[in-house]
Design brief:
Helix content is 79%, strand content 0%. It is mainly α. The chain is built from 14 helices and no strands. 40% of the residues are buried. The longest helix is centred in the first third of the chain and has 32 residues. The chain has one domain: Orthogonal Bundle (ABC transporter involved in vitamin B12 uptake, BtuC). The two termini are 29 Å apart.
């Protein structure tokens, strides 16, 4: 079993290396190795944009599946994901407020991008505080999921109202952001995103052992000394941090947080929880790099590609669960 896990991981890592090399060479210009290693090269700026694109997909591939994996393990629901708690929707709402109400502000482009990110992260942090406050009142996990769906519906309704009254340029800017942009992330944004993702992974690592006890049942988990209230807070904070940071810098990337953990269970199950987590991260990186290649070659927005891929898979999951009941 250990050998099969190592073989699966090695195969995916080889796929990641190949997809990264292809991703670095996709674009209108053909670049040489010198363009990537020399800052004085004629096309060094274009090379840096491609490197940032690859790094952005790597970080998204780590954080979104990790967020979905933690939520699915906590709620014991294969259809749980970052959007379940309304994190992505509220981040989108915060960005919508910023775009629609800052149209008269004249700001440099780097400041506009920074405020977009701050808006998304700030909105998600507010939602995280609300979830933590309400979670103490919900003893049943299903109520927290329903609360998340209600928040998502409310955020979507408010965004629709803002779009109805928005000017053409503001509406266009929001739509472009909502498509998911993987080729406009700056080096400074990559550094900030990396720090947030690393912090989220540290918190996620602390929740692995309690999640093992949680999977065996509430009573058994308590007998093992698992603090279920602390685990709930930890999962909510970690998932909010990871998914909100990616939404802030790359726009809403849908369905990956649900689909990748599902594929990991298909590829290698049963497995230890930490093995599933590792598998989620490397498979997430491969899928995001692969989607980035498709996005660059087809010129389709990243969010459109993830939706076209994720919706049929989730539908198949629902039908499969129905047949097994």
């Amino acid at each position: 079993m250990k050998n099969s896990f190592k073989f699966i991981c090695l195969s995916i890592i080889i796929g990641i290396i190949i997809s990264v090399l292809i991703n670095l060479n996709i674009g209108f210009l053909k670049l040489n190795i010198i363009d990537f290693i020399s800052s004085g090269s004629e096309n060094s700026q274009i090379a840096q944009l491609r490197v940032n694109r690859v790094l952005a997909m790597l970080l998204a591939g780590i954080s979104i599946p990790t967020s979905g994996f933690l939520l699915q393990e906590y709620f014991q629901n294969p259809l749980a994901g970052p959007s379940v708690l309304g994190i992505t929707s509220v981040a989108s709402l915060s960005v919508a407020f910023y775009i629609f109400f800052s149209q008269d502000l004249v700001l440099p482009e780097f400041l506009q991008n920074s405020f977009l990110s701050i808006s998304a992260i700030g909105g998600s942090l507010v939602l995280m505080l609300i979830l933590l406050a309400f979670s103490s009142r919900f003893q049943d996990k299903s109520f927290l999921i329903i609360f998340g769906f209600l928040i998502s519906a409310l955020a979507g309704a408010v965004v629709s109202i803002l779009q109805f009254y928005a000017e053409n340029q503001s509406l266009k800017n929001y739509i472009l952001w909502s498509f998911g942009a993987n080729n406009q992330v700056s080096t400074n944004q990559i550094w900030v995103l990396s720090i947030i993702v690393i912090l989220g992974l540290i918190l996620g690592f602390k929740s692995i052992k309690p999640l093992i006890g949680n999977s065996l049942g509430t009573s058994y988990a308590q007998s093992l000394g698992v603090n279920l209230k602390q685990l709930k807070f930890l999962v909510i904070i970690t998932s909010s941090l990871l998914s909100a940071s990616v939404t802030a810098f790359l726009g809403p990337i849908l369905f990956i947080g649900i689909v990748v953990p599902h594929f990991c269970r298909m590829i290698y199950n049963p497995a230890k929880l930490w093995q599933q987590w590792i598998l989620n991260m490397i498979l997430g990186i491969f899928i995001m790099e692969f989607f980035s290649i498709i996005s660059e070659t087809s010129q389709f927005p990243l969010n459109v590609i993830t939706s076209l891929f994720g919706i049929p898979v989730i539908l198949a999951m629902m039908l499969s669960n129905k047949r097994t009941v």
